[in-house]
Structure formats: structure tokens, C-alpha cells
User: Which sequence fits this backbone?
């Protein structure tokens, strides 16, 4: 039904989505990614949510937990590419996730992780 | 709401059904010409309530209905289960409260996203949540 793909770009993992993400898909991704970060010593994770038409409280919580797990594994997580309508719905839902780092797109996210972009 | 014309019924028995309910809600929202922001609100609320029906209600049924009047079209989503019911409705609507280890935004969040929100629950007999979204102007 869906695919989350994980691509390694030097020492950063890039996660992209296509289609609908079920709760199980989200949990599987969280575990896969944590294993790969731990196994490779990657220093950053970029989660590109531009392919998602919906981020509900379950997925938002899963992304937040993923960021916390990666932080314990010494990797910094940035969520990039959120669609404006998804942001509106999340805010009305009551979730703003202030401690989740975000960037406009993959490029900006990469420069944030490189330390060359704004903090 | 009376006179709901188009009704689609979907089972919520397993996790993948949450995705089916989201898809049906999106199709209905697109069919009445909701903006992308409004479509996303509909689908987000549907996702939260479908998950509640599965996790708290032990499964149930979602119905997606459309009511067309002269000036507006109303999209109605009903989530019904025969589960244990909600003992303390006020508490269940409070953000941050959850009996299933979630963030506890399902009910309160859906209430904020929708134009109207009704909750009917009886301990031991189940829960029905009805939300509606109305088009901003006439849709032909």
C-alpha cells in the first residue's frame, strides 16, 4: 500500500514516502531507521514528508519518537517538506511538535545538518 | 442531520481499515469541492476517529454521508462501535488524556477540526461520534 524508502547520502539517511502510510508502516519505519542509524553511525536523518497527504496524531507522535530515538543514537533528525494543508490540519488537531526540527525541503534540511544553514 | 443522501459504510475491524476510511473520506471531500486545506482536515479527523473506534471501541463501522441543500453540501462522518463506552466524556475530550498510550488528541482534535461534533456514549453499550463539515458556498 505504501512505501517508505530509506536512502543513505554520505552520513545522512533520507526517508521519503509515497502513498498512504498505515500505523504499522510508521512503526516499522521507526525500527528500521533506528537500526540503520545505529549500525552505520549516521549523524543525521532527513524525513521528507512532502509525499504525505496526511499526518495525524499517531504519525506525528511516531516521527517525534523517531527523532528522540535518533538523538540517543547521536543523530540529528529534521522533518522536511511538510505540505501547508498538512500543517494547518496538525495545528487544528492540537499538535505543533515544537521540539521537532523542520526545514522547507531536502536541500535546506541538508544544509541545516551540515551546519551551513540557519539554525 | 436528516436526509443524508449518499451513504457509504465501511467496516473498521483491522488497522488497514483506518486507511480505507481515510480514502473514502477524502473522496467524499473532493467530490463536494472542498479546498485542499478542508480536505486534509476531513481526512485527519477521519483518521483520528477511525483509530479510536478500533483501539477503544474494539472495532465498528464508519459511514460517510453527503447532504445537499440549496446553499451547502454537508459531509457527515459517523463512527460507531459497540465497545465499552467512554466513562468520563469530559476527560476523554481533554487534550493529553488517553487510555491507549497515545497523545490523547483523537476526540478533542477531531472536535476542533470539524464544523460540528456530537458524541453519544453509554458505558457498556458503545460509542457513536458524528462529525460534519460544510461547504463554504453552494456547490452544484
Assistant:
Amino acid at each position: 500500500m505504501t512505501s517508505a524508502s530509506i536512502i543513505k547520502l554520505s552520513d545522512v539517511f533520507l526517508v521519503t514516502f509515497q502513498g498512504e502510510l498505515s500505523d504499522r508502516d510508521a512503526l516499522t519505519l521507526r525500527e528500521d531507521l533506528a537500526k540503520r542509524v545505529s549500525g552505520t553511525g549516521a549523524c543525521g536523518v532527513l524525513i521528507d514528508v512532502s509525499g504525505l497527504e496526511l499526518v495525524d496524531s499517531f504519525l506525528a507522535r511516531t516521527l517525534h519518537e523517531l527523532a528522540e530515538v535518533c538523538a540517543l543514537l547521536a543523530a540529528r533528525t529534521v522533518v522536511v517538506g511538510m505540505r501547508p494543508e498538512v500543517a494547518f490540519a496538525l495545528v487544528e488537531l492540537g499538535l505543533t511538535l515544537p521540539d521537532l526540527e523542520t526545514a522547507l525541503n531536502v536541500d535546506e534540511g541538508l544544509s541545516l545538518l551540515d551546519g551551513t544553514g540557519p539554525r | 442531520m436528516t436526509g443524508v443522501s449518499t451513504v457509504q459504510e465501511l467496516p473498521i475491524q483491522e488497522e488497514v481499515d483506518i486507511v480505507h476510511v481515510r480514502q473514502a473520506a477524502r473522496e467524499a471531500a473532493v467530490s463536494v469541492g472542498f479546498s485542499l486545506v478542508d480536505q486534509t482536515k476531513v481526512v485527519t479527523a477521519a483518521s483520528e476517529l477511525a483509530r479510536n473506534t478500533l483501539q477503544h471501541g474494539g472495532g465498528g463501522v464508519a459511514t460517510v454521508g453527503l447532504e445537499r441543500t440549496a446553499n451547502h453540501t454537508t459531509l457527515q462522518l459517523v463512527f460507531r462501535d459497540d465497545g465499552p463506552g467512554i466513562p468520563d466524556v469530559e476527560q476523554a475530550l481533554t487534550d493529553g488524556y488517553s487510555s491507549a498510550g497515545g497523545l490523547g488528541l483523537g476526540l478533542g482534535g477531531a472536535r476542533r477540526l470539524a464544523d460540528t461534533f456530537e458524541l453519544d456514549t453509554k458505558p457498556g453499550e458503545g460509542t457513536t461520534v458524528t462529525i460534519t463539515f460544510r461547504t463554504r458556498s453552494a456547490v452544484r
About this structure: Chain B touches chain A at residues 15-16, 18-19, 22-23, 26, 36-37, 39-41, 43-44, 47-48, 51, 95, 102-103, 105-106, 108-110, 112-113 (CB under 8 Å).
